Amino acid sequence: MLLRKYLKSFPKLQNVLTQKRLAQDYLKVEVTGESLKFPHVWLRDNCQCDACFHRSANSRFIDWSQFDLNVKPRDVSQDANTVKVIWEDGHKSSYQLNWLKFRSFTPESRKTYDMTIYKPTKKTWNKDTFGEAMAKFDYTEILVSDEILHNWLYHLSVYGVSLIQNTPDSDKALDAILEKVAFPKMTHYGAKYTIQTVANNKTNSVAYLPKKLQLHTDLSYYEYGPGVTLLHCEVQAEGDGGANLLSDGYYVADYMKQHHPEQYKLLIDTEVEWRNIGIENGIEFFKLHRSPVINLNKHEELSRIHFSIPQRSSYFPVNIEAVAPWYKAYTTFLELNNQYAAYLKTDPGDILVVDNLRLLHGRNSYEDTTSNVRKLNGAFLDWDEIYSRLRCLTVKLKNLDTIY
Ligand SMILES: [Zn+2]
Question: Which residues pair with 291 in a beta bridge?
Fold first, then answer.
């Protein structure tokens, strides 16, 4: 206490001492000519010995009530591949250099890790660049080749859209694709659902009518919204009817940020209530979720788009003055999405795959007659499962065992 008081009268000296103390909290390790720093506390936390880390469970095993936050090494030695640390309490740790390098705290290393392991960087597109964004994959190739499965999921995560072709003409064909990734996302429509015109206007979803479907995201009223929509076209309507409209909501959000910053701000700040009420398979549901149209994460990056005209609640949870300006911003967002959307008409055998947290999709009206029918099988996948499968494949195909 006395020393601290004394030092306070010499702020510069105190600074130097603090910095020196901080510098001593790191271990410097030379890896392939680079000097990398690792905090002592982090190294001890990530000791890979059998007492600290359970190999088969791939999990830390440390009893945290015994953990010393001020842990210091007593002795450090390094050879060509390994750093060995003996801590002050005698515990021994050993780290592979390439294992350490992969976890380095430098900005460059962190970027590499983010892109190869965490999540690939997204690339936005509009109708003019849709050709690059929309890649086509073969149904059977996805099922038999890890490399093609990886490429499909990687592409989907970057662009948010893809087409799987040559799918067998069967209601069960989607199952094999879903199982190749993980398992379908359950909703009140079940693990899978059929989109087909329901007679006499008696339906619980406007998707089951042949009318035009305005741009929307699916199931906006779910807090844990389905990550990806898969639509298997089994029978397609003739002519222009039944074609899809696809818009990259992230492109439009970026565009609004630049060109309509005030309206953009309203769309990220204003909470809207999304709603769906009905009965499916005899079971009543009443779904509500509140969220802005454009959602950002803590790094101010786009994280989710909610957009629906039919499934927006008439209850609006805002102050009365906020209502009218928000409608204007919402309309601008839809107009821009329409303006930058690409058209795509799927053929029988196609599975259209769409990032449902990012893209808006819609559909032309079509005439539903006995000679002109349209039938789609739909299912959802979650991004947790997609990224998980993608990482497993990346590690396997690129031999990135150091991740473990
Ligand atoms: Zn240990």
Answer: 272
Distance of CA 87 from the midpoint of ligand 1 (Å): 10
Average pLDDT over residues 355-380: 84
Ligand 1 midpoint to CA 76 (Å): 15
For residue 89, report the distance from its CA to the centre of ligand 1, in Å: 11
Query: Any idea which residue has 């010499």 for tokens?
Result: 10
Between 195 and 151, whose confidence is greater?
151
SS (H, E, C) the chain: CHHHHHHHCCHHHHHHHHHHHHHCCEEEEEECCEEEEEEHHHHHHCCCCCCCEECCCCEECCCHHHCCCCCCEEEEEECCCEEEEEECCCCEEEEEHHHHHHCCCCHHHHHHHHHHHHCCCCCCCCCCCHHHHCEEEEHHHHHHCHHHHHHHHHHHHHHCEEEEECCCCCCCHHHHHHHHHCCCCCECCECEEEECCCHHHCCCCHHHCCCCEEEECCCCCCCCCCCEEEEEEEECCCCCCCCEEEEEHHHHHHHHHHHCHHHHHHHHHCCEEEEEEEEECCEEEEEEEEECCEEECCCCCEEEECCCCCCECCCCCCCHHHHHHHHHHHHHHHHHHHHHCEEECCCCCCEEEEECCCEEEEECCCCCECCECCEEEEEEECHHHHHHHHHHHHHHHCCCHHHC
Find the 366 Cα to ligand 1 centroid distance in Å: 66
pLDDT surpasses 60 at 11:
no
Q: Measure 27 CA to ligand 1 centroid, in angstroms.
A: 17
- Measured CA distances, 99 to 46, 51, 85, 103, 105 (Å): 11, 19, 15, 7, 13
CA 61 / ligand 1 centre spacing (Å): 9
State the distance from the centre of ligand 1 to the C-alpha of 403, rounded, in angstroms: 18
92: CA distance to ligand 1 center in Å? 6
- As a residue count, the chain comes to 404
Q: Are strands 161-165 and 135-138 parallel, antiparallel or unpaired?
A: parallel
pLDDT at 2: 53
pLDDT at 191: 92
- Quote the ligand 1 centre to 114 CA distance (angstroms): 27
